[in-house]
Amino acid sequence: MNPSLMKGRGLVKGRARAEALVSEKAFTFAHGVDPATGNVTDVRSDIRGSNVRGKILFYPFGKGSTTASSWFLEAVRLGNNPSAIVTEGVDLSAVIGSVMARLVYGREIPVVSGIPRAEYLRIRSGSQVRLDADLGEVRVEP
Amino acid sequence: MFLDSFQEKLLRGEGGEARQFAMEIVTKVGDAVGADALTHIKSAHILAHYSSLHDAGVEVLERFAESGGRFAVPTSVDPASIDLQNWRSFGIPEDYARQQFRLCDAYAKMGGMRCWTCVQYQVCNFPKQGETLAWAESSAVVFANSVLGCRSNKITAGMDVACAVLGLTPRFGMLLDENRKAGVTFRVGLRELSDIDYRSIGFFIGRKSGARVPSLSGLPSAVSSDQIKHLGAGAAAAGPVTMIHMPGITPESPAVADAPGGARVEEIEIARSDLTDVEADLNQTDEFPDLVAFGVPHLSVNELGELARQLEGRKLKGNVKMYAYTSSQAYDMAQRTGITSAIESSGARITHSTDAEISPLKKLGFNIVMTNSAKLAEIVSSEGEIKVRYASQKEIIEEVTG
User: Fold this and answer.
1) Same domain, yes or no, for B274 and B187?
2) Which of A60, B275, B300, B401 could serve as a FRET partner for B108 with CA atoms 20 to 30 Å apart?
C-alpha cells in the first residue's frame, strides 16, 4: 500500500490540487471562519489564524449550528472558500455548501469523507495534496 | 438514490424552476450521504436570519421566492437577527434591518408561519410522535428526536428551504432505525442540578460523544421540558449530537438497556468536576459584563415568570443591559400577565423574534457577555471578538443587580 495515498468516499465530485490545511478538531464555518477573509476565527480551533482560501481543508467532523452551510456559501460568494474539503464523518454543512456553491455560483468544491483522523494527521499543513473526489482519493505529493 | 416518476419530472423542471432548484439540492445531498430515496415530511423548520445567511443567503431565498417557490408543508422559521417589532429601540442599523426584512418578505411570500423562534415545538409547530420532519436548528432537532419521538436530521441552511418546498427529504441518518441506537451511555448521579448544570451536562455530552448517539440516565424524574431544551441545546452546540436517548422520556427507549439496542457501549459517569471543567472552559473573563443574555434557546413564558420572580425588588447596576430573548407568542403572554412590567422594572428588557447568538452583538457595542446559555457561550466565544462569562441565572442576577 502506498503510504501517501488515502482512500475515502467522494461526496461531491471534482478534483483539486492545493496546500493542505489540517485540523484535528471538530470544525465549523458558522462563527468559525470570517467569510470576508477566509480566516479561521474559532478560538477552539487548532488552526485558528490560518486562512482556508484555496486550501484543501481537513477536519474530522462538523459541529454546532445548522447555519454553517450559509457561512460557507458566503465565503464562496466572496471568493474565500477552500478548494476542497476532507473529513472523517459526513459533514452535511460541507456537502450542502458545496452543492449550493455549484448551483448558485458555478463553483466546484469537491468533498471527500471517510478518511479517519488518525490517517490524515500524517499530512502536515502546507504539504501539497492532490484530491480526486470522483475516485475518493487523497494523495500527498512528494 | 431512487426517484419516482413525479420526482423525476420535478428534477427536469416540469414543476417549475423553484422545485427544480430544490430537487437539484436534495438529490445531490441524498446521493452524497447515501440516501436510498426521498421520503415525505410533515413539517419543516428553516433558517432566515441575516447574520448567518449573509448576502448569499438573501440571494438564495429570494431566488426561491421569485421563481415561484412555495412551501409544500407547514413551515416555521428560526429567529431573525433583529427584534422585528422593536429593532430601532435596540440600536439596529437601518441597512442591517433592510437585509433582514428582505429575508422576511421572501419567507412570507413562500407561505411560512411567521413565528420566528428556535423553540417552534413550544409555540407554533407541534408534531406528533413518529412524524418525519426536516428541521434546521440543532437544538430543536435534538428535542424532536429525543423527546417528541419524531425523526429529523439536522438540516442545514439551503437544504432546509429545498425540503420545505418539496415536502420531501432524503432518507438517511436519523431517519433510519439503525442510526438511532446509542453508541455511548452517560449517567449523571448528581443531585440539586441548577439551570447551568443542565446546559453543562449537555455540553459535556456533546463534547464526548463525537459521531455516536448518546444516552443519558439519572436525570431527576421532575426534569422539565425547558431543562431538557437547554440540555439538548448545549449538546448540539458542542458536537454533532442530534439525539439523546433519555430512558423514561424518549419514546423509543423506555429503559436504559433499550437505547443501545443490546450492544455493549462505553459508559461514562458525569462527575461534578466534569461540569466545573465545562464552566471553566466557557468562562473567558471575570470582568463586569455589559450585556446579560438569557434565552438561547428562547425562554418559555414559565421561564420568563421565573426570571421576573428572581428580579423582584432589584435594579440593574451601572450600564449593564439585560435582555431576555423569547418567542413573539411568549412575549405577548408576558405582556398580558404582568411578567413584562415586573422584568422591566429592574431595567431589564424582553425582546422577541430574535436571539442573542444571531444578533449583531459586536455591532451594537457589546464586549463582555454574561449568560447561563452554554450554546451562546460556545458560539460567542468561538468568534473571539466578545468575551464570555458563563454562570447560573441566580449568580448572574446577584452580581449585576442590587
Assistant:
1) yes
2) B300
CB contact under 8 A, A104 and B60: yes
Q: How many independent structural domains does chain B possess?
A: 3
Dump strand ranges (E) for chain A: 5-7, 9-12, 15-22, 56-59, 84-87, 111-113, 128-132, 137-140
Range of the domain at B159: 5-176
Residue A65 among the catalytic residues: yes
Domains observed in chain A: 5-140 (3.50.30.10)
Residues 23-82 of B with CB under 8 A from A: 24-25, 28-29, 32-33, 47, 49, 52-57, 59-60, 63
Q: Is A122's Cβ below 8 Å from some Cβ in B?
A: no
**Which residues of A fall within a CB distance of 8 Å from B80?**
none
Listed residues B258, B280, B302: the one ending a domain? B280
Strand, helix or coil at A78? coil
A22 strand-pairing partners: A58
pTM metric for this prediction: 0.92
The answer to whether the Cβ–Cβ distance between A69 and B32 falls below 8 Å is no
Same structural domain for residues B154 and B41?
yes
Q: What is the CATH number of the domain that holds B315?
A: 3.30.499.10
Beta carbons of A96 and B159 less than 8 Å apart? yes
A97 touches chain B (CB under 8 A): yes
Q: How confident is the model at residue A1 (pLDDT cuts 50, 70, 90)?
A: low
Q: What is the pLDDT of residues B382-402, one digit of tens each?
A: 778 899 999 999 999 999 999
Catalytic residue among A4, A65, A125, A127: A65
Claim to verify: residue B83 and residue B223 sit in the same structural domain: no
b/e code A27-43 from CB counts within 10 Å (16+ = b): bbbbbbbbbeebebbbe
CA distance A42 to chain B (A): 4
CA distances from B303 to A128, B226, B294, B328 (A): 54, 8, 10, 14
Instruction: Output the domain CATH number for residue B93.
Output: 3.30.499
Looking at the fold, whether B156 and B235 belong to one and the same domain comes out as no
